[in-house]
Backbone:
């Protein structure tokens, strides 16, 4: 079996809204027909995917009757059982309906806020019904265009109130569900609350039960703001808060493009994969991406397979990186190995005094070269396949 063949143990997953995306955009109508969620599950299983995720409305149309809901759930469960695909994550749609045009948890209308919490509880129930261990919160409408209309401290208080209430709900129900906040700087709102990984990590620590809440960072979202996604994910790992991750590709400064993973920014994608593989992260490798609008239905599965193959190819490059003697020597020359060594160790008054009394020579320290150009070139050659 090829090293690029996706298998369930790789924990690749896709949202129903990704492979089910119909090609519509703000300027044009849909270009593909709708697909049945159960058939999506079967196709994912056939190409080696492990998991599937969904918004509540992706699976159960809001207008569905009780009997229609039961039939959809039964058909979806049958497809999961037959394919071996698991539900890796669930979330809720608090952004499409016009009721949420001013926000959901942070709407200025208290009744909208209550409706958003009630809708989310039903979505949590649906995810738990299928054994989803993670529930993601993307607050796409939690933001502003007119700054005077939504004071941010009050908005964050309402955001916190909602999450604390929902944490209480999952504990009361005994679900064991963990929550993951998904940051994004803008779009569809002009400015979105909790815009980056760092904002989300700081906010989590203000919750009543931060131990069950983490983050679900997305490549495109941090890249839109010109930030290093690799560094943001590393900070989430360092904080013990990386519960889920959305993989795709994005050009800096553009709208949220959600390209196939690896389609842009190969070097950035390489260091991300290397980080995930080295860190021991064992959660889903979830692809929140979508096929190009020009694809027909068959092209969807080329897109999905490409996401997984690109991840596996970069994981293989990460293994080659670790086994390359030339790269090892360049890492040593750059002082990479020294970064893992403690600088001074725990504080003592004696050590502090000795450091103050030590005769450092800043000019001699400045004379050192770190050979970063050589190291970076070796990475490029590795990725280009010329090493």
Residues:
């Amino acid at each position: 079996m090829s090293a690029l063949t996706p298998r369930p143990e790789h924990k690749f997953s896709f949202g129903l809204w990704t492979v089910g995306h119909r090609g519509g955009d703000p300027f044009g109508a849909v270009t593909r027909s709708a697909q049945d969620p159960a058939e999506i599950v079967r196709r994912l299983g056939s190409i080696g995917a492990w998991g599937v995720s969904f918004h509540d409305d992706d699976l159960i149309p809001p207008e569905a009757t009780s009997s229609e809901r039961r039939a959809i759930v039964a058909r979806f469960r049958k497809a999961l059982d037959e394919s071996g695909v698991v539900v890796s994550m669930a979330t809720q749609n608090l952004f499409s309906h016009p009721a949420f045009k001013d926000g959901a948890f942070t709407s200025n209308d208290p009744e909208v806020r209550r409706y958003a919490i009630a809708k989310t509880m039903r979505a949590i129930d649906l995810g738990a019904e299928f054994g989803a261990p993670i529930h993601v919160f993307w607050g796409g409408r939690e933001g502003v265009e007119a700054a005077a209309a939504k004071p941010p401290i009050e908005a964050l208080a309402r955001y916190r109130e909602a999450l604390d209430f929902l944490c209480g709900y999952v504990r009361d129900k005994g679900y064991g569900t963990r929550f993951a906040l998904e940051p994004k700087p803008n779009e569809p709102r002009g400015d979105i609350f909790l815009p980056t990984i760092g904002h989300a990590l700081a906010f989590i620590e203000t919750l009543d039960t931060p131990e069950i809440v983490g983050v679900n960072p997305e490549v495109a979202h941090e890249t839109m703001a010109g930030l290093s996604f690799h560094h943001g994910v590393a900070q989430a790992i360092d904080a013990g808060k990386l519960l889920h991750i959305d993989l795709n590709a994005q050009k800096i400064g553009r709208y949220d493009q959600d390209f196939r993973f690896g389609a842009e920014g190969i070097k950035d994608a390489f260091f991300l994969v290397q980080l995930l593989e080295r860190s021991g992260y064992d959660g889903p490798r979830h692809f929140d991406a979508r096929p190009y609008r020009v694809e027909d239905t068959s092209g969807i599965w080329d897109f999905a397979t490409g996401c997984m193959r690109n991840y596996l190819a970069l994981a293989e490059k990460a293994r080659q990186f670790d086994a390359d003697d030339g790269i090892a020597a360049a890492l040593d020359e750059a002082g990479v190995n020294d970064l893992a060594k403690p600088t001074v160790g725990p504080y003592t008054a004696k050590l502090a005094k000795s450091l103050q009394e030590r005769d450092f020579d800043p000019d001699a320290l400045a004379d050192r070269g770190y050979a970063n150009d050589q190291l970076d070139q070796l990475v490029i050659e590795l990725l280009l396949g010329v090493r």
In short: The domain at 8-317 is CATH 3.20.20.150 (TIM Barrel). The two ends are 24 Å apart (CA to CA).
